[in-house]
């Protein structure tokens, strides 16, 4: 019987979805890891012995040796993708990549718009063009993964239309980025194919992006992401593949985090221990990583909300960064019955232990 394991962050992102994916990849080495929301803005860190990789375009099973699949709900940026591919080659990771033909393509024009739009900067952005891409694809100026294997003359004509959509005039910065973009498309070895590819696997690992509290429909507007960060997209794929045996892995840190601006319930200054490997640090677009006490009411809200999108046979909880707590994580405060509860004492190491 085919099985699916869905990994969902319960907060504003940065919960530990990358190491949870790696944990499941280690247990199920014959699986494929599927990205079903977000895009190249992901920063899912995995450490295996002395190797460390921040997965952004590739799924977080790549360092472990598993292939990656990107669904139609995601964005891809060929230049970012190519650069990460080169890093994975150096680390002996798996660069096998399969992309749904309708995955949305981010162009240099989307990135420039993302980084220079005043509203984007006020509301929060990773600066990698994901939100701009999603919004543009609601207009006639669409660009999909399938367009990357069309004749280049057609692709260039579409890119000209996108440049015009944003009102960009040709300049050296734009021209250099566009040249890197086209060169990356020529160099990348990928396979553009639909969901039939996934039918050859008995176990599918679905790696979520960001967290439920940033969902475009359920977060506190305007500080939301342009994506469905619940199980919605993953469950749609499971239904297409007629997979009914679904196991959830809901992930939270032992405290609250939020990268960039927006509402938080229990924000306060927290001094973290043993956090030298923290990947989510200040950058000029997202700004600071903020902290707060764990909010059990918010966790219950996120859990109840996700239940509206998926019917799962099993539900598990993963709590990372337990080394930061002065007291035990209060599982009894959560109103969902979990089959298993796992704990990790770092957001990146593989020291998972079943704690309930």
UniProtKB/TrEMBL annotation:
Keyword Magnesium: yes
Catalytic activity: IMP + L-aspartate + GTP = N(6)-(1,2-dicarboxyethyl)-AMP + GDP + phosphate + 2 H(+)
Primary site of residence: cytoplasm
Binding, GTP: 13-19, 321-323
Cofactor binding note of this UniProt entry: Binds 1 Mg(2+) ion per subunit.
One GO biological process term: IMP metabolic process
GO molecular function: adenylosuccinate synthase activity; GTP binding; magnesium ion binding
CC per GO annotation: cytoplasm
Annotated residues for binding of IMP: 14-17, 210, 225, 287
Enzyme kind, highest EC tier: ligase
Superkingdom as given in the UniProt entry: Bacteria
EC number: 6.3.4.4
Binding-site residues, Mg(2+): 14
Entry keyword Electron transport: no
Alphabetical keyword list: Cytoplasm, GTP-binding, Ligase, Magnesium, Metal-binding, Nucleotide-binding, Purine biosynthesis
Cofactors demanded by this protein: Mg(2+)
Entry-linked InterPro entries: Adenylosuccin_syn_GTP-bd (IPR018220), Adenylosuccinate_synth_dom1 (IPR042109), Adenylosuccinate_synth_dom2 (IPR042110), Adenylosuccinate_synthetase (IPR001114), P-loop_NTPase (IPR027417)
Pfam families: Adenylsucc_synt
Active-site residues, record numbering mapped to chain: 14, 44
Role description: Plays an important role in the de novo pathway of purine nucleotide biosynthesis. Catalyzes the first committed step in the biosynthesis of AMP from IMP.
Subunit relationships: Homodimer.
UniProt record similarity statement: Belongs to the adenylosuccinate synthetase family.
Protein name: Adenylosuccinate synthetase
Organism listed in the record: Chryseobacterium turcicum
């Amino acid at each position: 019987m085919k099985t699916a394991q869905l990994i969902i962050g319960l907060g504003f992102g940065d919960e530990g979805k990358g190491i949870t994916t790696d944990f499941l990849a280690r247990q199920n080495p014959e699986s494929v890891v599927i990205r079903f929301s977000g895009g190249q803005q992901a920063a899912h860190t995995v450490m295996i012995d002395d190797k460390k990789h921040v997965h952004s375009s590739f799924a977080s099973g790549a360092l472990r040796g598993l292939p990656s699949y990107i669904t139609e709900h995601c964005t891809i940026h060929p230049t970012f993708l190519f650069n990460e591919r080169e890093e994975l080659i150096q680390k002996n990771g798996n660069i096998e990549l399969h992309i749904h033909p309708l995955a949305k393509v981010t162009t240099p024009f989307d990135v420039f718009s993302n980084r220079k739009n005043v509203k984007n900067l006020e509301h929060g952005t990773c600066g990698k063009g994901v939100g701009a891409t999603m919004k543009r694809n609601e207009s006639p100026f669409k660009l999909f993964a399938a367009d990357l294997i069309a004749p280049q003359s057609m692709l260039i004509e579409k890119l000209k239309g996108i440049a015009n959509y944003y009102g960009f005039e040709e300049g050296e910065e734009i021209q250099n980025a566009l040249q890197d973009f086209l060169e990356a498309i020529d160099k990348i070895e990928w396979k553009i194919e639909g969901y039939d590819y996934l039918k050859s696997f008995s176990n599918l690992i679905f790696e979520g992006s960001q967290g439920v509290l940033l969902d475009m429909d359920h977060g506190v507007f305007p500080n939301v992401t342009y994506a469905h960060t619940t199980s919605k997209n993953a469950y749609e794929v499971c239904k297409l593949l007629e997979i009914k045996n679904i196991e959830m892995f809901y992930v939270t840190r032992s405290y609250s985090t939020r990268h960039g601006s927006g509402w938080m319930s229990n924000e306060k200054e927290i001094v973290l221990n043993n956090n030298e490997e923290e990947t989510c640090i200040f950058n000029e677009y997202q700004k600071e990583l903020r902290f707060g006490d764990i909010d059990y009411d918010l966790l219950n809200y996120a859990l109840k909300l996700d239940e509206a999108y998926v019917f799962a046979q099993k539900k598990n909880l993963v709590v990372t960064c337990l080394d930061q707590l002065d007291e035990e994580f209060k599982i009894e405060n959560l109103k969902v019955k979990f089959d298993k509860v796992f704990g990790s004492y770092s957001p990146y190491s593989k020291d998972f232990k079943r704690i309930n």
